[in-house]
Amino acid sequence: MTLTTERLILRAATQDDLMDLHAIFSDRRAMRYWSTAPHETPERTQENLDRLIASAARQLTYFVIEKDGRTIGTAGMHKTDEVGFLLHPAYWRQGIVTEAMHAIIPYLFKVTDHAQLTADADPRNAASVGLLKSLGFEETHRAKNTFCINGEWSDSVYFALPRPAQVR
Q1: What is the DSSP string of 122-133?
Q2: Long-range contacts, stretch 74-81, CB < 8 angstroms, 24+ apart
Q3: What percent of the chain is modeled with pLDDT above 70?
């Protein structure tokens, strides 16, 4: 399964994505608000890639974002009903994740029976919080000290997007 938008190809991860994904997962700016520390080695990224590939073999719900032949990010559903996204900083503020999620969200509601999609963002990450709100997600609650990376605790703001009535 491949989804396409005006500028993007959204597809399953392959082994060929390793070094592009490592460039993202090792970038401290990209990983600033992620729930794990930046990857120090390609081997660490390979562990994530192996999970993405295995998950896609069961049901594709998490995509790599490809633009102009290069893997520049990831987006989709990575937990039971939780969506997430990660983009190389060189592509920030170009509407790429918004464009990707406008294709991915309807697909997720089509291939799953979830009553809603959820998201968890660090409240300091104004770009992600704003993006989720622009996609129709509504804040449900907040929690303090939800994860610790390199000795720094982060809070969470949680969101939900109900299944549209016409997709039931």
Answers
A1: -TT-HHHHHHHH
A2: 74/13, 74/21, 74/24, 75/10, 75/100, 75/101, 75/104, 76/10, 76/104, 76/108, 77/104, 77/108, 77/112, 77/117, 80/114, 81/112, 81/114, 81/116, 81/117, 81/118
A3: 99
Rounded-to-integer distance, Cα 74 and Cα 64, Å: 4
Strand (E) or helix (H) holding 83: strand 83-87
Residue carrying structure tokens 């503020």: 93
Predicted local distance difference test score (pLDDT) of residue 168: 55
Domain coverage including residue 37: 3-167
- pLDDT value at position 156? 96
Tally of structural domains, the chain:
1
Give, for 104, the enclosing helix (H) or strand (E): helix 96-111
Neighbours of 33 (CB within 10 A): 18
CATH number for the domain that contains residue 73: 3.40.630.30
Tokens linked to 76: 């989709």
Mean pLDDT, rounded, of the chain: 95
Cα–Cα distances (Å) from 88 to 76, 145, 159, 164, in that order, read 16, 26, 23, 31
